[in-house]
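Worked example 2:
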Amino acid sequence: MNKKDILQHIVEQLSHDLGIQYNAALTAHEASTHEENIPDNKYETLALEASYLAQGQANRAQEIRRALETYKQLTLQVFDDSSAIGLTALVTLAGDDGTTRTVFIGPLEGGLKVVCQQTDVVVITPASPLGRDLLGKCVGDQVRIGVGRSLSEFDIVQVC
């Protein structure tokens, strides 16, 4: 799997998400200023609630824009099986039950999922529990995913 392709998919997904978020913020702003939402008394708060929503949507759009710019300028590092895992590593994990998971360690937008060559790749950040656990490890090491009864151990089988 090519990390440049994954990075391109992340940029495309963030661009798409930014467009959706921008439209949502615009719609919420229009609702907050629409003449039908002008309060008749102090107990009618629809316009106020819509303005809070518009602000939240605008803030999220700004976060996505910042992430998009970060990923556009991101320099991909080269890793091999003996390299310690770090930022921009593409890591394949294998569970005892035969399942595999592929994660990309990125600077922002943890939880974002992209599909590349029919493989789901989840972006995680170094600040996440899995990201913290993976940093500095190599192929052959193990990591734990989950908590309590849903705790599973995975082997690191590939890093690139």
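The domain at 90-159 is CATH 3.10.50 (Chitinase A; domain 3). The chain has a mean pLDDT of 91.
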